Amino acid sequence: MQVDTTGTDQSIRGDAPSRSSHVALAQMLTASFRAHGHTGNVLTHIAQGSWTAIEACMARLLDPSWDARQCSRLDSEILELMCDQSGIAGKTVRAELLRIVASAFGDETAEAIMVEMETRRAAKPPMTAFTRKRKW
C-alpha cells in the first residue's frame, strides 16, 4: 500500500510506523470503526458526530511524539476504548487496532503500540466520574 502524506510516496507495510504512517493508520482505523455498527455508534456519540475529529484524534494517539498529558476529552475517551477490555466497544476497538496494525507492520509492532497506548493511558490526566462510569 502506498500512502502520500508528505508529498512523496512512502510504503507503510513492513516498517515501524513513522511520523507520516500514523496518519494513514488513523485513516484505516477510522474507516474500520465507522463501518462497525456498535463501535461506529459509540464513536459518533462521544465525538458528537464529527468523524473528522475522530480521525484527527486517532492520528494524535498514534503519533509517537504525542504527549498524553495534553489529551482532550475525545483523546481520553478514545484512548480508554483502545485500552478497555471489558465493554463491547472496547473489545472491538482493541481487536481492530491490533488487526490493522499487525497487517501493516507485524504482530510485534502491534503489541508494542498497545503497550505504548497503555503507558499513555496511565500518563493522561484522570477521567471524570461521569466518564469513568460508562461501559460501552
Notable traits:
136 residues, two-stranded antiparallel sheet, mainly alpha
Amount of beta strand: under 5%
**What about the largest sheet?**
2 strands, antiparallel
Poorly predicted tracts of residues: 1-15
How many distinct helices?
A: 7
Q: Spell the H/E element sequence.
A: EEHHHHHHH
Roughly what is the average pLDDT, rounded to an integer? 79
Q: Could you give the distance between the termini?
A: 33 Å
Rg (CA only) = 14 Å
Brief rundown of the structure:
With 136 residues, this protein is mostly helical. It contains 7 helices and 2 strands. A hairpin with a 4-residue loop joins strand 1 (2-4) and strand 2 (9-11).
Give a structural overview:
The chain is built from seven helices and two strands, in the order E-E-H-H-H-H-H-H-H. It starts with a strand and ends with a helix. Helix 1 packs across helix 3, helix 1 crosses helix 5 and helix 5 crosses helix 6. The chain has 136 residues and is mainly alpha-helical. Strand 1 and strand 2 form a beta hairpin. It is globular. Helices cover 65% and strands 4% of the residues. The protein has a two-stranded antiparallel ribbon.
